[in-house]
Amino acid sequence: MLKKMYIVEKFEKRKRTKGGYFGVGMIIEEGGKMVISCYINDVESPSMSKLMTLETGVKVIITDVIGGNDCLRLTAKSKVMTKVANFNVDMGVVNNFIRPEVVSLSEAKGSPQKKRISVQGCVVEMGEYVCTDSYKRRSIWLGNGDTKMEVVLWGEAAASTFDLVANEVIITAVVVQGIQLRSTPSTVVEANGMDSVEGVIIAVGDTSDGYPVDIYLETEECLRLPESTHFDINLITLPCGVEFSADSSGLISEIKMLDFEE
After folding, report:
1. Rounded to two decimals, what is the model's pTM?
2. In the predicted model, what is the mean pLDDT of residues 63-83?
3. What does the DSSP assignment read for the chain?
4. Looking at domain 99-191, which CATH architecture does it have?
């Protein structure tokens, strides 16, 4: 079956519990009313190789797909096509998936298993950042009075998180798992109280070198853009006016384009 899909979260390779790997990405179909998983059993297939190179927001048509309303799966015959005619996608559903409703820490602790939420709280403890060949990980603990909860950050969310103890934060797009919250590819840690400033980008690094990407402003200030901000620097025309929030190391937490005339 041929499927029209919009990539909501990038495809990535994950390890199976009993060994081996599989591929998965989050997508929404044309006319779909929910974001669902799309799986690939063969991570060495041409389809997986192609999907791994695609950013979020890309529309594709994939042939020979099986599955129903809650998940899809590519087959050995599947082909991925990126040069496709435009089709409609419910961006309201997409935006609610990327940034779910923000709830308090007590509401998060009472949420159903596997529910996707955003949570607000004060950081009371931060674990060590662990980086290996296969994963990046850091735990932080949010606290409010007698309530305390661990948030496990993986990948870019872990790599881009700095010292936040005693700061009020919003952590977006996490999933309730047991007594913990776990990050997703869309997770962003936003520290309240960071002032937004404006600047003009004159040069950017190459995304093929990995994230965070260096961004240079006309003031010669260097900022670092993590992948989790979902700001596609490949679509901008330089010079480009932006409004952003960044920590003392130059790591950007939020960024958006401004109307700019040279």
Report:
1. 0.73
2. 95
3. --EEEEEEEEEEEEE-TTSSEEEEEEEEETT-SS-EEEEES-TTSHHHHHHHTPPTT-EEEESSEEE-SSEEEE-TT--EE-S-------HHHHHHHHSPPEEEHHHHHTSPTT-EEEEEEEEEEEPPPEE-SS-EEEEEEEEETTEEEEEEEETHHHHT----TT-EEEEEEEEEETTEEEE-TT--EEETTPPPEEEEEEEE--GGG-SSEEEEETT--EEEE-GGG---GGG--SSEEEEEEE-TT-BEEEEEE-----
4. Beta Barrel (2.40)
